[in-house]
Specification:
mainly alpha, 66% helix
Amino acid sequence: MTHAHAVGLGLLILAIVLLAGLTPVLPRTAGRVAALVLTGLGVAWLLVNGPMEGATLLIIEPGHGITVADILSVGAFAVAGSTLVRSRR
């Protein structure tokens, strides 16, 4: 992994963590926008986290599974989903 790639992954992690912390406390409209952005960041993380995956936690089929690094996206999706549900009330 190059230094630039590692920095990029680190910045993506930082963006997800910060936005996940802020999304639930934002006003309704801003929270919806933040939840959509958080979902996009979660998808992006799933696509680029290969060098940092770690152990496989759940094997879906040979060569494919859920890894330690994928948990970041699961958390992002959970926060985004709960924020969207809460903003509809």
